[in-house]
Amino acid sequence: MLSVLSYGRLVARAVIGGLSQTDGRDYSLVTASCGFGKDFRKGILKKGMCYGDDACFIARHRSADVLGVADGVGGWRDYGVDPSQFSGTLMKTCERLVKEGRFIPSNPVGVLTSSYYELLQNKVPLLGSSTACLVVLDRRSHRLHTANLGDSGFLVVRGGEVVHRSDEQQHYFNTPFQLSIAPPGAEGAVLSDSPEAADSSSFDVQLGDIILTASDGLFDNMPDYMILQELKKLKNTNIESVQQTARSIAEQAHVLAYDPNYMSPFAQFACDNGLNVRGGKPDDITVLLSIVAEYTD
């Protein structure tokens, strides 16, 4: 096992210059989370891994590291339904399947599909909708496999630049693709997409790559250049540094969300769709920040 000092030196070299992909060593993700619920105290988890109506998980299995973010659709609150129940249960189910080894690292859509259909068959009625984004690192192959349904998503940053990103899925402005469970008899009246409709991708990663997985509360309030500025503060893979940077990103997005004079990405998108909108977008914010490191037991 590497000493803390040796490990830190190895990571520093990886972050600065990158290491060969042919060394045969396993990779892993060092991941921290931070978030804000728009209706709750700053930075406080509502329950489990939920920030407001957002939910997330971080899971490990012997073959892979898996992350997930889901954004519960707040409109269900108008019908007496807690939106966080659906997103939270979906993410907990995905996490359990991963920990039980009931998944294929190269097929995160399969994890999402299995989890969703398990919810549909739940004996206890569960109503609601959410987006979902899953990211899987196959430790041995050094490949990242992703599935994204809706407007949560991820960025992969290497050398200070975005080298991969998720594609947002929208039916129309501010109406993302989503998984749903409707009340009996109302299925046709509730927007619902198949988990197989999730956009999927696979690509190689390198030691020192930074992976940012988040709900739309982040991306609607912070453009890429602001995120990249914050990520420059991440110099190594110790969990304290990753946590501090995740918190810094979430805090900045939270402040901008309530700035009425700020032209946010969401406001710009609204203007592009013919709406006169300015300011940030008050929303739940969930940030999972990961850095690719050499795997150690």
TrEMBL record:
Cofactor(s) required for function per UniProt: Mn(2+); Mg(2+)
E.C. number(s) listed in UniProt: 3.1.3.16
A Gene Ontology cellular-component term: mitochondrion
Alphabetical UniProt keywords: Hydrolase, Magnesium, Manganese, Metal-binding, Protein phosphatase
Membrane recorded as keyword: no
Annotated GO MF terms: metal ion binding; protein serine/threonine phosphatase activity
Domain PPM-type phosphatase: 26-292
Catalytic activity: O-phospho-L-seryl-[protein] + H2O = L-seryl-[protein] + phosphate; O-phospho-L-threonyl-[protein] + H2O = L-threonyl-[protein] + phosphate
Signal sequence annotation: none
Domain of life where this protein originates: Eukaryota
Family, as annotated: Belongs to the PP2C family.
Protein's name in the database: Protein phosphatase
Native source organism of the sequence: Pogonophryne albipinna
